[in-house]
């Protein structure tokens, strides 16, 4: 009995070690959790019952949380590559964290409650950025329905879109300070957010193209396998 119990304990220990989350995945999970206080800070940033000084403090708090999330985004990717801890869970959670952050940030920065005074994000920009993420999620669903697989393949243009959006959000949040010392800051910010929208649209088109090609290859491969199976069956019948 004692030997059996030891073997069971050893199996449980090995199973626990096998499914232990990597540090990269843990950082990604923390980044997802930090979205909650980030949203809360933005939602209360324009509360009329809060003093102007407190509103500024809330915006600074949102900036601080955003910086931590942006740094953690780079850190978890570095750790995953450096220590060879690239997992399916991490590969799935990383873009999810990015999409949750950018969707919440864009929606709030364009809203009445979460906007930065004088630097409200245009609705068209929000539609382009959030629309990209919605279409990607729909695309994943279609891929899974057709192929019974979920493939997360990063695209260079998609990474560029995310990086540009991160810079855009940071620049909007810090606009009241920088606009005082940089005369053309508002114009530069306008160029930045329209550029982010344009790159998001281009990235969406690339994802749609790649997804369509993958489905075509999958269906072609299935048809070829069926044809091969039918040929083999015919040969067996003749023999």
What is the strand and helix layout of this fold?
Blueprint lengths: L1 H17 L4 H21 L8 H31 L5 H22 L13 H25 L8 H18 L1 H7 L3 H54 L1
Strand content: under 5%
Spatial extent as radius of gyration: 24 Å
Oligomer: single chain
Q: Structural class of the helix and strand makeup?
A: mainly alpha
Distance between the termini: 57 Å
Q: How does this structure look, described?
A:
This protein is an all-alpha fold and 239 residues long. Helix content is 82%, strand content 0%. The protein is built from 8 helices and no strands. The protein has helices at 2-18, 23-43, 52-82, 88-109, 123-147, 156-173, 175-181, 185-238. Helix 2 packs antiparallel against helix 3, helix 4 (88-109) runs antiparallel to helix 5 (123-147) and helix 5 (123-147) runs parallel beside helix 8.
List the keywords.
elongated; lipid metabolism; transferase; 239 residues; mainly alpha; lipid biosynthesis
Give the structure's gist in a few sentences:
The chain crosses the membrane at residues 21-40, 60-80, 92-111, 123-146, 153-175, 187-208. With 239 residues, the protein is mostly helical.
């Amino acid at each position: 009995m004692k030997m059996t119990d030891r073997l069971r304990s050893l199996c449980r220990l090995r199973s626990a070690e096998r499914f232990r989350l990597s540090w990269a995945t843990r950082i990604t999970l923390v980044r997802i959790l930090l979205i909650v206080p980030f949203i809360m800070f933005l939602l209360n940033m324009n509360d009329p019952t809060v003093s102007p000084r407190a509103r500024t403090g809330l915006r600074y708090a949102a900036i601080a949380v955003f910086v931590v999330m942006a740094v953690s985004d780079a850190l978890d990717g570095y750790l995953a590559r450096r220590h060879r801890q690239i997992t399916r869970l991490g590969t799935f959670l990383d873009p999810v964290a990015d999409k949750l952050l950018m969707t919440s940030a864009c929606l709030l920065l364009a809203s009445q409650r979460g906007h930065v005074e004088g630097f409200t994000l245009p609705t068209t920009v929000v539609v382009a950025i959030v629309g990209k993420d919605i279409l990607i999620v729909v695309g994943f669903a279609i891929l899974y329905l057709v192929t019974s697989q979920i493939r997360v393949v990063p695209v260079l243009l998609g990474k560029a879109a995310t990086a540009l959006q991160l810079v855009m959000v940071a620049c909007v949040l810090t606009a009241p300070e920088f606009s005082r010392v940089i005369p053309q800051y508002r114009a530069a910010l306008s160029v930045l957010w329209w550029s982010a929208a344009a790159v998001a649209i281009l990235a969406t088109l690339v994802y749609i193209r790649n997804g369509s090609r993958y489905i075509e290859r999958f269906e072609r491969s299935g048809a070829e396998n069926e044809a091969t199976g039918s040929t083999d069956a015919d040969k067996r019948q003749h023999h």
